[in-house]
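ligand=zinc ion
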Amino acid sequence: MAKTHFGERELESALLAEGGPLAAPRPTVDREKLQHHLREALKLLHVDLDNENLRETPLRWAQSLITLTSGYDYTDVGKLSTLFRQACESTDDGCQNLVVLGGTYKTLCAHHILPFFGRFIVGYIPNKHIIGASKIPRIVEVHMRKLQSQEHLAHDVADTIEAILDPLGLAVWMGGRHLCMVMRGVEQESSFMETNVLRGAFLRDEKTRHEFMSIVTRRGEQA
Ligand SMILES: [Zn+2]
């Protein structure tokens, strides 16, 4: 590869752009080599690549994998938190209300590269800062665009929010359906899993934890 430039500025502006999915430029990925190896992998599985329907599949598969793993361009939590701190606002002193934000996620499991997807709910008690409402889904998106386990995803999201906001308390709930449990192995029909990460006031104070968990019960069921 001729070019090893990391394209840092492009990465930053992709990360902080408002609206739309994370359009990571990924200048360091060798697309042609990836496409070649994916083509070889399909051949090993006796997939007929001359079939009209499959002719473009290695190219499409490569493009989709490049997008779905773009979180690997943003693995430095220190750098991530410095960037996202630009999108934070100061709170009034003494404001210790619980801030709750939710949304959806979809990612690929680290073990089988099959999708799992569902909802997340993040709750935090601000210390000195709050973060713009669109940024928490972006933080989740950065981490979901890697090969993941639900447990790791929830912890990665919590670590990043903690590094940005240093909140008095932080809770991350995730509930998701895992296709690797449905499509292979034991073929379990019930593939719903829940993960909870609780820190600070959510660990110490039962009332705060209860308040968050009752929000999860109300909103998490729409998964
Ligand atoms: Zn799996």
